[in-house]
Task: structure prediction
Amino acid sequence: MNYEKDKSLQYFNTFGIDVKAESFVEVQSVEELQNVLVENKKPIFILGGGSNLLLTKKVKGLVIHNSIFGKKVERDFSKSIYVSAGGGENWHEFVLWAIKKGFGGIENLSLIPGRVGAAPIQNIGAYGVELKDVFHKLEAVELATGKIHVFRRKDCHFGYRESIFKKKMKGQFCITKVYFKLSKNPKLHLDYGAIKQQLEAKKISIPTIKDISKAVIKIRSSKLPDPAELGNSGSFFKNPEISKRQFKQLQKSFSQIVFYPLENGKIKVPAGWLIEQCGWKGKRVGNTGSHAKQALVLVNYGNATGKEVYQLAVKIIDSVEEKFGIKLSAEVNVL
Ligand SMILES: Cc1cc2nc3c(=O)[nH]c(=O)nc-3n(C[C@H](O)[C@H](O)[C@H](O)COP(=O)(O)OP(=O)(O)OC[C@H]3O[C@@H](n4cnc5c(N)ncnc54)[C@H](O)[C@@H]3O)c2cc1C
Result:
């Protein structure tokens, strides 16, 4: 295996933060991964596309870059279809592959950066669809033993930007393959964001999954900064969920508060709105700042360090807590 010492991770994280990995290796198969685990007893960090990461310091130990590829139709039924993808596959390319074959269910998740293996980690979601809606099972190699484990949906404890892999099993597995149940006649999700308006503007009354994907790509491209141009990791914070009681109290002081009632009885308040009310939207602090079009996206204007971005995040958390009594938590993995 080709181990690289003191490898810069600048081009391996979408924030573009220049920190080094003590040791770095790329694996292209489960066998390679298992061999690397036998050869190394250092702390291990699994790296995908680096699009949900804030690197604040040198990464100690070994960074394993998951480049296990392969997409396959596993089982073909009259209405549904089971497909699998290697953990190193690019997520968006996998979505486009499924759409081209006419398999629906993930079109709303178009253009989310990153790799397939990371998608279950935070149960990626966008425009009314979450990974868990189409998830069948996954295979993961246990880092301590090299053994292959299978996790079914109930084992993953999926929640809003959450799974068991961010909690109890954090840092213990490398996800090598994910299986999805897609549909040949999917229920379309058009009610979120501006999908309907986008389709209407194109005079599309009976949309296909390809139309939806195109609409989502157009909306996302107009709203979110492209990491190739401006370093970022998408939404830095999660949208907080608060109790009805706390919400009613807040509404007395902030009658304009934006909110979404949830099925679990809680109220979701958009983090972007809270951050904007505290005056952070579009504000630049040194080499970092909150994006002008999307307040909950923190950006790297060029030479930001991970610490600078982290300090800004802490300031934002403190000011939102002071004004609203709500403590924001990071969606991005801070290392
Ligand atoms: C512009 C932009 C827009 C975004 N929009 C969205 C969005 O709409 N919805 C959404 O949910 N997310 C969004 N994200 C966040 C990000 O794209 C997703 O979280 C994505 O799944 C991260 O994948 P990655 O391969 O880049 O993971 P990485 O950043 O490389 O890793 C993230 C975490 O997962 C772990 N990990 C990665 N791969 C594996 C593996 N194979 N096995 C075990 N652990 C692993 C890492 O150790 C790390 O803790 C956005 C990011 C950007 C930059």
